[in-house]
Every structure is written in C-alpha cells, then in structure tokens.
Amino acid sequence: MNNEHAAAVDVTHLLWKLEEQLDAAFATSGELAAALPRARTAARLPAIAGQQAFELISQAMMAIGAARGHTVQGHRVLEKVGRTIGYDADYGDTRPKPDFMPGASAKTGADTGHLRVAA
Prior knowledge:
The protein has 119 residues and is mainly α. Helices cover 62% and strands 0% of the residues. The protein has helices at 3-42, 51-84. Helix 1 runs antiparallel to helix 2. The radius of gyration is 19 Å and the shape is rod-shaped.
C-alpha cells in the first residue's frame, strides 16, 4: 500500500470515528435533556429549578448538531478530494448521496421540508 493510499485509509477511519462519536454525543445529550424535567418533577422542585442547566444542555445539543452538519460537509469535500487524487473511497457510506434531495438543506443535508416561514 502506498503512502497516499495509507493516508486516505487513515482519514477514512478517523472520519467514521468522528461521525460515530457525534451521533453518540447527540443521542446522549437528547437523553439528558429528556431526563432533566423528569428528575425535576420526581424531586418535586419548581419549574425554575434547573432551568439554566436545561437551557445550556439544549445549546450544547444544538452545537453538536451543527458540528455534525459541518462533518457531513467535510465528508463530501473529502470524497471530492479523494476522487481528484485517484482514491475513490465511499468513506463508509455506500448509499448514493445526491447533491440535492427534496426538502434537504443544501448546506447540511438535513431534511428541512417541514419548516415553513410564518407571514
């Protein structure tokens, strides 16, 4: 295996690892966000108790979601770079990834079809 191929394989594995870790972090933050109000209720505390923590955890969750979107963008760029240098890797995702999906954000690939602007 040449150095270029070995480097591409290393990058591929690190990209998979990052994507998996971001998904796990997002899932864990969602579980925590759901547990906070249940814990408050179980402890019979007023609604204000823990509100600041809830807001900060929610912000962290949004930041993880943004990081995931940036990683998706980086994934697409790496695929293009790989093809340019002659390394056609799927970077772990064998499903087709069209540049545009109905209802998807061009920036992140997220389904935004359900969002509407209120007038």
